Amino acid sequence: MFGFIMAAVVACLPTQQIHTQLADTYHENRVMAGLNNAGAIIELWASVDGSWTVLLTLPDGMSCVMDTGHDYIAFPIEPEGMNS
20-37, pLDDT tens digit by residue? Predict the structure, then answer.
């Protein structure tokens, strides 16, 4: 068994700059945003090709890439009592 230590590299830029980069370079659009318990905004950006990016957007106007991936699939939110 091997143990691996991975160093996380978090890229932070002014929010508008990172939004423009996601839209222009990766053709991603914001598909979800929510406020976390620490007062920051968590944003999910995704493209029709399935790429996705999770951003942490801070009150100071900076956004940080927390994770990226592929094969994005959206699931609809069903009204309560409708799931089977």
Answer: 999 999 999 999 999 999
Reading the block at residue 58, the tokens are 């801070």
Tell me whether residue 52 is exposed, middle or buried, using C-beta atoms within 10 angstroms of its C-beta: 0 to 12, 13 to 18, 19 or more.
Answer: buried
pTM value > 0.85: no
Burial class (CB in 10 A: 0-12, 13-18, 19+), 72: middle
CA 8 to chain centre: 16
Q: Return the sign of the alpha-carbon dihedral for residues 41, 56, 76, 22.
A: positive
pLDDT exceeds 60 at position 6: no
Name the residue type at position 42. Answer: I
Q: 């009204």: which residue's tokens? A: 79
In terms of pLDDT, which residue wins out, 70 or 84? 70
Calculate the alpha carbon distances from 80 to 44, 46, 77 in Å: 24, 26, 9
